């Protein structure tokens, strides 16, 4: 298995680590690990809620989709904070790799789900903005591996910092746009 595929598989597995952290072995983990596990447990729950509510209550579905966008923004801010903490304190790049890759996978899966939901609701502006972010992820993946390893972090930390700033900026823009779109949709549907 290639190293990129292995990193992707590890990142997906770490998103499922919330099960022992929250359910079976709560006493063995720190408060920070429990909070991260809550976020990763909440994301699939919101996917199901948004999808099921779409067929009955479009407005409520859009509100929950907005919550997903806020979670994506929070994850991007955490990503930015972890990168800056690494730059300032020169911590272990292997630990940073294990922290960043699940965040990247989570934000990309949130974006894929919002694109799917935008297709269901025929929300073309949100669909276009979702594809812009996926296009950016594709652009990044042509320049360096999208999922980071310790060597890439060590060598390209300035590029990773710029990437984190772009992700936070675009995520904030998308959150503001989502609020405006939600209000406009509520006005026209009610």
UniProtKB/TrEMBL annotation:
Which Pfam families does the UniProt entry name for this protein? Cornichon
Assigned keywords, A-Z: Membrane, Transmembrane, Transmembrane helix
Gene Ontology biological-process entries:
vesicle-mediated transport
Residues annotated as coiled-coil are none
Give me the segments passing through the membrane: 37-55, 61-82, 168-189
The protein here is known as Cornichon protein, putative
Q: Which organism is it from?
A: Angomonas deanei
